[in-house]
Automatic annotation (TrEMBL):
GO terms for biological process: L-leucine biosynthetic process. It is found in: Cytoplasm. This is 3-isopropylmalate dehydrogenase. Substrate binds at R97, R107, R135, D221. The record marks Y142, K189 as: Important for catalysis. Binds 1 Mg(2+) or Mn(2+) ion per subunit. It comes from Spirosoma sordidisoli. Mg(2+) binds at D221, D245, D249.
Amino acid sequence: MKKHILVVPGDGIGAEVTTVGKQVLEAIARKFGHEFTYDEALIGHVAIEATGSPLPGETLTKMRAADAILFGAVGHPKYDNDPTAKVRPEQGLLQMRKELGLYANLRPIKLFDELLDASSIKPEILRGADILFFRELTGDVYFGKRERLDEGNTAYDTMIYSKYEVERIVRKAFEAARTRNKRLCSVDKANVLESSRLWREVVQAIAPEYADVEVEHQFIDAAAMLLIKDPKRFDVVVTGNLFGDILTDEASQIAGSMGMLASASVGDNTGVYEPIHGSAHDITGKGVANPLASVLSVALMLDISFGLKAEAEAVVGAVDAVLKAGYRTRDIAGPTTQPEHVLGTDAMGQQILQLLQA
Ligand code: IPM
Ligand code: MG
């Protein structure tokens, strides 16, 4: 199979982890006889520094021309404490999502058994948890009208959803539930918010078309609690952009570490595959970042964008085997990890590559 992949490392540890992700793609191409070509582009803080824009036109052109995008992270601490900054790295990410129509963000939460002791949650609560989140990605308060009034002393953001936006993500979630345990939980705040009442109405209207899927509705506050209390009760979860952002960071603890979680952002065109973790400037350049979320993002790309199931399974299998062999990056090392098994980014990547070359 011939595919053209755009690598967009972005900021912070993005470059370190996507380097490993790309090596995994190269190894898969060799092992399975595919022809993958690559290009690279800037986004975020590094793009602002180079061009003044967090999403340069050239990047967008390259993105549209690619079959899939391997993405790192965006963000820089310099903006976090400067609320007045007019241009911010995150704008590049949000604009990319909008421009490419990436309305569905899939965040699978699956605990590798070997990482049971890496989480701060009790093993008996975690064992067997397997959740697929569908976070809506191009609507909500992220894109609604926002403004400062009253000489800057008042501010508002608008939580806004249209029926078609809810419908398309909810349908994707129902379809996925059908291929899994046939349970769908829709998360909203319909006891307070009008946009959530619309959301719930849409889910209720679509549900009869998927009569084989059991549907439940939870309010965001209760969902946040249940996720930690009993993660196994969830199969597929569908929710809006902001609630999904928050819930999936929480859910990352079910997978042991943020450093393990991959995501796929898809719409009707090119898909973007990225870790859910951020740019992590505190560890940038130290060579200790966990590359496994980027590696698992590659698995999602192979599966979802290219339909290469065996190749995707080979990647996930390699991650599983490396963990079974006892190797850990710092973030997932537990009390029983032997010190010599704690690896840096490149060494962890090498372990995965060795297995894929075998
Ligand atoms: C994510 C991130 C982004 C978001 C930030 C970096 C804007 O937290 O992808 O979850 O809020 O969507
Ligand atoms: Mg987030």
